[in-house]
Amino acid sequence: MKIVLCGSKKFISKIFEISEELQKMGFETVIPFEFIKDIPKKEASIRHFSEILKDDVFALLVINENKNGISNYIGANSFAEIAFGFYYGKKVYLLNDIYEPYAEELVAWEVIPLHGDLNKIKENNF
After folding, report:
1. Considering 61, 104, 115, 125, which has the largest number of Cβ atoms within 10 A of its Cβ?
2. pLDDT tens for residues 39-51?
């Protein structure tokens, strides 16, 4: 099963760390292409949205760490990816807790906060 990872570029090292942990748990992961190769934002977004649409992707995992003193930060691009994943019927997980400014939508869309526990992904799928 494949999980698409999302999150701010400021969290790049955490995204790679989480990718490794998920792979050890038996998941395949997709990291935002712009984190691997320097490409224009528009192209990177199109590629990442295309990954979300693939049939073998069952979920998105948003790495929502603290950023600039803001808890559980989710930026505009990650929020767009969450909305896209929700619309196309993918499960959406947050590494940490609900980001308060978007709480109404995240709760309504049944986004699942993991509170840092990646094992909850397996619990939710098996």
Report:
1. 61
2. 888 998 899 999 9
Structural Rg of the chain based on CA atoms: 13
Please check whether residue 95 is in contact with residue 61, taking contact to mean a CB–CB distance below 8 angstroms. yes
User: Residue 8: inside a domain, yes or no?
Assistant: no
Mention every residue, 6+ apart, whose C-beta is less than 8 A from residue 98.
Answer: 72, 106, 107, 111, 113
Contacts of 89 (CB under 8 A, 6+ apart): none
- Cβ atoms 125, 1 nearer than 8 A: yes
Tell me the residue range of the domain where 100 lies.
18-54+65-125
pLDDT of residue 30: 95
Per the CB < 8 A criterion, the answer to whether 31 and 19 are in contact is yes
Residue 5 falls inside a structural domain: no
CA distance 78 to 41: 13
List b or e across 62-100, with b for residues whose CB sees 16 or more CB atoms inside 10 angstroms.
bbbbeeeeeebbbbebbbebbebbbeeebbbbbbbebbe
